[in-house]
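Tip: read the tokens left to right.
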């Protein structure tokens, strides 16, 4: 942030820590989301990519003026308030930066709100509905929001096909567990966990 004073906020990729086993996943928190390489050609392109799927959710640092410019989190959103806030910042012309590497540890545990896929789907529906119904949005933004709204509405309604796909995903993850969660932690993570008394 010091090196790029015109950047409004920064975010990073992170190691994923299983809170119960203290194991670190081989792939990072952003791996499944295929985040774009920065800088993108323009903020509109970044906005569309962020609207497609949230990749800004770990260790976000926001300059105070940027936070005040767009207002705080929308507390009516129980899940996804950080994503909606990032969308508002980018839509307002505020530029993010992402330092290279994995600079945080993201803790995963069974009681996380994001573990409730029904609730996640409902919150996605709400975010996409806002953009799909906003007459001031650019046509490509509305089109993407309408497409995603239809997809997440189907998931929120939890049809049999959606449940079957989710079950297949869970089974696939269980089969991948030995590969996804190697027995040894990276040295940087080991040092950090020891420093804070976690291990």
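Filled-in amino acids:
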């Amino acid at each position: 942030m010091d090196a790029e004073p015109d950047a409004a906020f920064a975010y990073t990729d992170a190691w994923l820590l299983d809170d119960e086993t203290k194991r670190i996943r081989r792939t990072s928190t952003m791996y499944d989301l295929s985040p774009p390489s920065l800088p993108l050609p323009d903020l509109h392109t970044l906005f569309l990519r962020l609207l497609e799927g949230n990749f800004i959710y770990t260790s976000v640092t926001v300059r105070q003026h940027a936070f005040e410019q767009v207002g705080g989190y929308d507390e009516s959103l129980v899940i996804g308030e950080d994503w909606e806030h990032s969308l508002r910042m980018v839509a307002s012309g505020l530029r993010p930066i992402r330092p290279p590497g994995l600079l945080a540890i993201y803790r995963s545990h069974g009681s996380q709100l994001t573990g409730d896929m029904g609730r996640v789907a409902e919150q996605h529906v709400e975010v996409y509905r806002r953009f799909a119904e906003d007459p001031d949005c650019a046509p490509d933004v509305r089109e993407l929001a309408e497409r995603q709204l239809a997809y997440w509405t189907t998931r929120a309604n939890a049809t049999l096909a959606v449940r079957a796909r989710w079950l297949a995903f869970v089974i696939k993850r269980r089969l991948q567990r030995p590969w996804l969660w190697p027995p040894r932690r990276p040295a940087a993570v080991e040092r950090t966990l020891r420093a804070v008394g976690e291990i």
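Helices lie at 43-52, 64-70, 81-91, 117-132, 139-156, 160-180, 187-195. The chain has a mean pLDDT of 87.
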